[in-house]
# Entry
Amino acid sequence: MKKLKIATLGILALLLILPASLKAELLFSTSQNTITITGSNPKASGNLVIPSTINNLPVTSIGRYAFQYCSGLTSVTLPSSITSIGERAFWACTGLTSVTLPSSITEIGERAFWGCSGLKGITVDIANSTYSSNDGILFNKAQTSLIAFPGGKTGAYTIPNSVTSIGNGAFNGSTGLTSVTLPSSITSIGQETFSRCSGLTSVYFMGNAPDTDSYIFENSFNLTVYHSPDSAGWGATFANRPTALWFADGLLGSINGNAITITGRNPKPTGDLIIPSTINGLPVTSIGDSAFYGSYELTSITIPNSITSIGEAAFYGCSGLTSITIPSGVTFIGSEAFMWCDGLTGVYFLGNAPAKGYGVFGGVLGA
# Structure
């Protein structure tokens, strides 16, 4: 087969090492006797292998936007000659599932892997002196800066205590991310860090409010920011998102006037859970809507006498509960509060019958 060559304004082309049905031309430029990969024509797909040399010159960098929108690209092999990856080099490569960075990489541009919604992990050669990876997440070598969270990772994530800063767009587009816990060591968060994280509902801060801008949660509409009551710099909102309290024992809550409403727990409770009657000198008077929704590993709950109301779906689906004692102070129980708690065999009321919504014990045998 004849090799195609293109020379236009210093841009050359090389045939990619791909199956016949996926062949494309690798575009590059030459400067100071080194090669920068600038893209491909047509867009790269399948398994992309970047050569270490072209025309006997070392391939040292992947240029800015080089493979943006190459949605058919599934894997990339980078040679040990590569020292830099440009800004947004693999932007929106939605089919890319894994990336391995060689020891030679010393510079990665901002948002290099932004929008890679299928990316499950980034691996860095242990000999790399600039970058490292932990659980597939990209950090600087000392792991004091979190650079990129793969867009295809799902569930909850706790940032290591060593981290002090989070880079621009680090979590951008991680739609499967549900919650993030940030250690007290975090002092700065970059622009658009948690933007477009549509599945993100909870962000937990263990320390004071960090330096950031108002756009870190842009287009992430469904989240609440939780913080410790004894930390500083917080208000009713943070970066345009509502805040609530995260107490030392993991309970979540909000202050209404001079009383506390329990709104959940991080992580979800297992085994026995005791709700305190006071927290930081304030009475705990209510359990909020959906507070322990789906906590199926919860086996018992102790509700204090200070509680006056239990919200809608507060214990919905807590199938591990076998009995509940409702103290005499409770005057209202919301709809579906104990729905599908199908392990319940007894509910004991210590006071008068409270007002209630519909289906409080729906789905519970004998209710």
User: Anything to note?
Assistant: The longest strand covers residues 34-41. The chain has three domains: 1-135, 154-246, 258-367. Residues 1-23 have pLDDT under 50 and may be disordered.
